[in-house]
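Entry:
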Amino acid sequence: MLFFEGEPSAGLWVIEAGRVKIFKVNVEGREHILHLLGPGDSFNDVAAVDGGPNPVNAAALSDLIVWVIPSARLQEFLADYPPAALSVAQAVSQRLRGAIQQIEDLALYSVQARMARFLLSQAEDPSLRGPAVTRAAIAAHLATTPETVSRVLRSLEEAGAIRFDRHRIMIVDEELLRGLAYM
């Protein structure tokens, strides 16, 4: 664990190497993964900028090298360099757009459509490839169960959109997968 929701924020975290999951947990212990992040990504920007507590939990999914910029230092820097403040505002806005998309996905689309979009997004982000992204992690991200993830992956394979190569999922028909992403 890197930090827990509700704790005081250490600042802005930046990943040099490895993978991190950003998640929430309900009172029954059910986990929902909000983000899977890799090298070059930053997180905990909201708490680092507003000085409030961590709004989420963060845990390493692999060996990790991270940098932490303390909140006070970040705030001083942003006050002294308006272009950097604009960049942070743009990054926070982009995360907000992602959260809005995630709400839409969960409310309006089937697990198969969410899985298709997840696979397409992962193909575009090589920092998240690797053994740490398990079916359980995918299920927690898509708000479903590992069994449903397995069943949906099999149906996508039977449809000819993907195939399995050892422990990797290979997209073999991107057009078909894109079509399934919005059904």
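The longest strand covers residues 31-37.
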